[in-house]
Structures are given as C-alpha cells and as structure tokens.
Amino acid sequence: MAISFFGLAIFLFLTLDSDFTSSPVSAASEGVQITYGSVIKLMHERTKFRLHSHDVPYGSGSGQQSVTGFPNVDDSNSYWIVRPVPDTNAQQGDTIKGDTIIRLQHMRTRKWLHSHLHASPISGNMEVSCFGSDGDSDTGDFWRLEIEGSGKTWRQDQRVRLRHVDTGGYLHSHDKKYTRIAGGQQEVCGVREKRPDNVWLAAEGVYLPVAESKHASS
Length: 218
Prior knowledge:
By secondary structure, the protein is mainly beta. It has one helix at residues 5-15; strands at 39-44, 50-57, 65-70, 80-84, 101-106, 112-119, 126-131, 143-147, 160-164, 170-177, 186-191, 200-206. It comes from Coffea arabica. InterPro entries: MIR_dom_sf, MIR_motif.
C-alpha cells in the first residue's frame, strides 16, 4: 500500500528538529529545492523506474538488503530521506549544493543506500545495497551529488548523478530485470563510467522548505 503525501507529512512533523517550524511542501513540483530531511523518490531518467528497496537480501554478493528499480509510482518502499554526512554543520532544511556528499536513508527499513566492490547479481558491476541503521553508518553510505547543467543547488527538475565516494561508481540502472524474487524489477548497480544510464531526477515526495535562516546560494 502506498503512503499518502499526508502520511509522509505527518512522519516529517514527528521527526523534525524542534527549532524547525515551517510546513513541508506536500507534493513535488518543478523547481522545488531538495533540502536535508526531505523524503523523496528518485526516478531513473531513461527507464522511469524508481530507486527501491525492501527487506529482502541479495542471494549472492554481500547478502545485504537488495536495491532495485521499481516500475510502479505508488510504492511506499521507494521513499528515501535525504541526510547529510555525520560531523558536518548541515541542518534540516538546508539546501544542497552540487559536489556535496550526502546520504540516502531508506524510509521503511531505516538502512542506508550503500555500495562496495561485491559484484551485482545480473551484470557483475558493483553491487548497490542497503545497510546499517539510524545509528550505524559508514563511508560506504557516502554519495557525491553531481548536478547536470548550470544549477548550483539541487532542485526537483534537475538531472543529477550520484557518485559513490569509496568506489567511484555512479548509481546506475538499466533494463536488465530480475525474473524470480524481484520479478519485473530492474537491477541497480554501480559503474565507474559516466553514462546516460547514470542520470536520476527527484520525483514524488514531501520536500521540506528551505529554512529561512539557512539559505544556501542558488
């Protein structure tokens, strides 16, 4: 069952910092800035599948929680919370500049989008998984935001790439699909080359407004 925008807004209010009082934007619209604490879906530009995870481990490689591309829009396991890396001054509601290192936390399972040198199940590229928990995160969860074009901060209508810090691999998907446990879902993996299949866009979600006292230049 899909989580409604209203339900997501309630979730955000329950997890907001105590000094953050603005109301979240309850639906994505063109030009909305992505801020820390926003809950979003990432859409693979070429195939339109959403970045997805669920509590099903890979049967090979690391055996960690699997990450796939999901064909349907109305799926609650495709929501990700945009987080800063630890030990930074970034706050909830801050905008995110290009070349910033971020983390993506899977909303349902609380695990982090992760990668390493294990081989992905279908193509043999670098595996992308979910790993850790709220208080358990390492550099394998770090992704560098690369914005395509001239924009300085991440917006909902911008094409972006996410490059894994430890391995140098770009978050990637393609039309190679699973046939058994995750039938119809497509592989998500990491590749070191910059390709058209590395491009993602922020799609559905609840976007926290920019904190008034914490604007980043745009």
